[in-house]
Amino acid sequence: xxxxxxxxxxxxxxxxxxxxxxxxxxxxxxxxxxxxxxxxxxxxxxxxxxxxxxxxxxxxxxxxxxxxxxxxxxxxxxxxxxxxxxxxxxxxxxxxxxxxxxxxxxxxxxxxxxxxxxxxxxxxxxxxxxxxxxxxxxxxxxxxxxxxxxxxxxxxxxxxxxxxxxxxxxxxxxxxxxxxxxxxxxxxxxxxxxxxxxxxxxxxxxxxxxxxxxxxxxxxxxxxxxxxxxxxxxxxxxxxxxxxxxxxxxxxxxxxxxxxxxxxxxxxxxxxxxxxxxxxxxxxxxxxxxxxxxxxxxxx
Length: 300
What we know:
By secondary structure, this protein is of the alpha+beta class. The chain folds into two domains: 135 residues, Diaminopimelate Epimerase, Chain A, domain 1 (Roll); 154 residues, Diaminopimelate Epimerase, Chain A, domain 1. The protein has an eight-stranded mixed β-barrel with strand order 1-2-3-4-6-7-8-18. The longest helix is centred in the N-terminal third of the chain and has 18 residues. It is globular.
């Protein structure tokens, strides 16, 4: 059976920047094993598979795979999938709904489109889950996972901790941009630390902040390294969790502009903002996209 796929670079307006995602548009009938094999073949940080929704009012059921496992939620794959689906609908003359709703293992992911005039240029999602805080990690162990020392870690706002709004990460703040540049994942340290409360990756960042009277704005630089010791050019789900954590700790809503991928030549810009549902904090994650490749493959 001939199946369609498309790719986009996410969290960038320019081709060959940001974080690439592959989207299999005709995934109905594929087995989990086949999806995992295809994700390994594409070999992007994540590949998505678009399936019919279980509920008619929803847009699609979306499954997300890294080259070695399925994940319940991720940021840039959702942004890229919504962007590419919307472009396909426009090309086919199908009217666009005001919001896409993807069924995923972490819950429903609601996504709005970003426009410049009449052109779709990106998307903005709402995290499927509120902030959850899991295990705290000893500073030296967290630093060691990135080949750093305890002196490279900043702990005045929070200690290294596993946090999640749908997909867990170990998150730590570093003392300087220079320390962030020096970060190199260590295999032995990873193997002794992970998996931990579902986390298998480390997200490190540095920040600058300012106040405008209504919200705290954060400018951060970040890097994320996976279990496979691969660096991710842009990690929307981890950035969303960090934004929610800062909002909870400060007691105000937070907006964040994260620059990621700079140290690997694929600069990405991730924009986040928190919203409150009673005592719970969830995060919007948005960014631009650049369409890349389209094609087909035959697989029964």
